[in-house]
UniProtKB/TrEMBL annotation:
Residues 154-170 form the Post-SET domain. Gene3D superfamilies: SET domain. This is Post-SET domain-containing protein. Keywords: Methyltransferase, Transferase.
Length: 230
């Protein structure tokens, strides 16, 4: 990513915007990014951002080489290509859109206590804004798979070891509202959840009439249905 700057530019303070993008700072305000924090690195800079460890039984994990505060950009996603269908290596970008990352970002595993988010609208990987500690050098990188995946190609038994581990992970569709509300989730996941709610209401009305809803039609359903049952 090209950045126009003068020779020996002054260090940007955390939160300063350059070319419309907030700079990133490490622990105590000192940037640990390979480009000095002038602009977020891309997935072509991953050798400076993470190390991939290959373990037994074909297991892999990615470990951070940088320290960043909550909300900071870890890497911009620039190498992704559309995928025809979800598979275990893809990330969901929209209600019916999936991409292959085509980079070592694919080695970032799931955790029920994530330190990263994949913002597929902005095409950025960022430090989880809900994290209290941010990202430290040596941390295993992880994001919450249901934050992007509505229905996964294959579910799995989570072994993240977090105190509030959810166990079997298969996407956001099967999670209850309270659980999903604990996490940052993508716009398309929120929209699919709203669609799911309306479908449930529609089925209840179709099968039992307004009596199934206590004699009242929810305002959210009225607004979508245009004031009548459809």
């Amino acid at each position: 990513m090209a950045v126009t700057a003068s020779i020996n530019p002054p260090a940007a303070a955390p939160g300063t915007k350059i070319n419309g993008t907030a700079t990133d700072a490490g622990v105590n305000g000192a940037s640990t990014l390979p480009n000095g924090g002038l602009a977020p690195p891309t997935d072509k800079d991953l050798d400076s951002l993470l190390t991939v460890h290959h373990g037994p039984n074909y297991t892999t994990k990615a470990v951070s080489k940088v320290a960043l505060p909550p909300g900071a950009v870890f890497a911009r996603i620039t190498s992704a290509t559309p995928a025809p269908a979800p598979v275990y290596t893809t990330v969901q970008r929209g209600a019916d859109a999936h991409v292959e990352l085509n980079s070592d970002l694919r080695y970032i595993n799931h955790s029920c206590e994530p330190n990263l988010i994949f913002d597929m609208d902005a095409m950025e990987v960022r430090v989880d804004p809900t994290s209290s500690e941010g990202l430290k050098v040596g941390d295993e990188l992880a994001f919450f798979y249901p934050s992007t995946e509505w229905v996964m190609d294959r579910g799995f038994e989570c072994q993240c070891g977090a105190p509030a581990c959810l166990g079997f992970i298969e996407g956001a569709k099967t999670l209850d509202e309270k659980t999903l509300g604990r996490y940052w989730v993508s716009r398309h996941v929120r929209e699919l959840r709203e669609r799911q709610k309306l479908e449930k209401i529609s089925k209840r009305v179709s099968s039992g009439g307004l009596d199934a809803l206590g004699g009242k039609m929810p305002l959210g359903f009225r607004s979508v249905a245009g004031g009548g049952l459809v």
